[in-house]
Amino acid sequence: MRTPFIAGNWKMFLDKEKGVGLAEELVKGTEDILDREILICPSFPLLSDVARAIEGSKIQLGAQNLHYEEQGAFTGEISASMLLSIPCSWVIIGHSERRHIFKESNDLVNRKVRSALKQGLKVILCVGELIEERESGKTEDVVREQLVKGLQDVQADGMKDTIIAYEPVWAIGTGKTATPEDADNVQSFIRGILSNSYSEDTARNVRILYGGSVKPANIDGLMAKDNVDGVLVGGASLEADSFLRIISFGE
Ligand code: 13P
Questions:
Q1: Dist. CA 68–CA 58, nearest whole Å
Q2: Which of 31, 110, 137, 149 keeps 20 to 30 A from 103, CA to CA?
Q3: Is 7's C-beta closer than 6 angstroms to any atom of ligand 1?
Q4: 230: which DSSP letter?
Q5: Contact criterion met (CB below 8 Å) for 96 and 170
Q6: What residue's CA is closest to ligand 1, atom 9?
Q7: What is the spatial distance between Cα 195 and Cα 186, in angstroms, rounded to a whole number?
Q8: Euclidean distance between CA atoms 43 and 35, whole angstroms
Q9: Does residue 229 line the site of ligand 1, with CB under 6 A?
Q10: 234 lines ligand 1 (CB under 6 A)
Q11: Would you call 195 helix, strand, or coil by DSSP?
Q12: Closest-lying ligand 1 atom to the alpha carbon of residue 97
């Protein structure tokens, strides 16, 4: 029903040579994969070269950020049409590193989501709580607010091109993974919110990924859960062996 979706977020790692080399290894290693979607999200300067390396393969290309304006005097920023021209079809929006290090608000995240969808990009919208929010029992409040505000004025049609990634901030790059049960509970809560905001049918079709210290050792347990439709992988997506093992979960 929901095709599993395995995404790698390369963050600010890998230069051109290493990135293209990794993409080529992934192309070879995924030739026989049929029943899952695969996405890699390199840094901006690598996008064109990686696009060439994955051409004709099953691997899709995404960016890690964009600006919400279509064009203009915004030094250092990147527009949706620039990404589409590479061609790059996906963009990650609202990653916790953007929210917390670069102070991106829910309002800014929402502008980016609406602009990306309007211009024809597909979106991975990230949500997730800080450790102190989890410990004070605020996980659901935080996730609800990020989701509802992030998707404000996005119509049901836009949800066909939108994936939600639940990334608890305390699990990112720390080696602490949410248990499969923790992930499933929050992700089922997210699906409930989507059902209220849109419809049961829309909510049933939206893929919800888990992200935060996903590794070959924990992928099978996570993917066994009903509401974990895929993963957004950081560190373990930077090496072909570990990312290919994650892609071939369950085998
Ligand atoms: P790690 O897999 O390195 O914890 O990163 C997760 C992440 O932030 C993916 O977007």
A1: 28
A2: 137
A3: no
A4: E
A5: no
A6: 234
A7: 14
A8: 27
A9: no
A10: yes
A11: helix
A12: 8
Whole-number Å distance, alpha carbon 202 to ligand 1 midpoint, is: 27
Is 235 near ligand 1, meaning CB less than 6 Å away? Answer: yes
Sign of the CA dihedral 110, 128, 91, 73?
A: positive
Provide CATH code, domain 5-239: 3.20.20.70
Provide mean pLDDT across the span 193-214.
97
- Amino acid type, 60: Q
Closest CA to 3 of 30, 33, 31, 35: 35
Give me the active site residues, please: 95, 167
What does the domain layout of the chain look like in residue ranges?
Answer: 5-239
Q: How confident is the model at residue 230 (pLDDT cuts 50, 70, 90)?
A: very high
Angle, CA of 36, 38 and 42, to the nearest 5°: 170
* Residue 109 CA: distances (Å) to CA of 147, 181, 204: 10, 28, 24
Given a contact cutoff of 8 angstroms between Cβ atoms, the answer to whether 77 and 31 are in contact is no
Q: What is the mean pLDDT of residues 42-49?
A: 98
Identify the band that residue 29 occupies on the pLDDT scale cut at 50, 70 and 90.
very high
d(CA 48, CA 87): 8
Residue 142: other Cβ atoms inside 10 A: 17
What separation, in Å, do the N-terminal and C-terminal C-alpha atoms of the chain show?
19
Give the E-state strand segments of the chain in sequence order. 5-9, 37-41, 59-63, 90-93, 122-127, 162-166, 208-211, 230-233
Compute the average pLDDT of residues 23-39. Answer: 96
Query: Of 95, 94, 63, which is closest to residue 79 (Cα–Cα)?
Result: 63
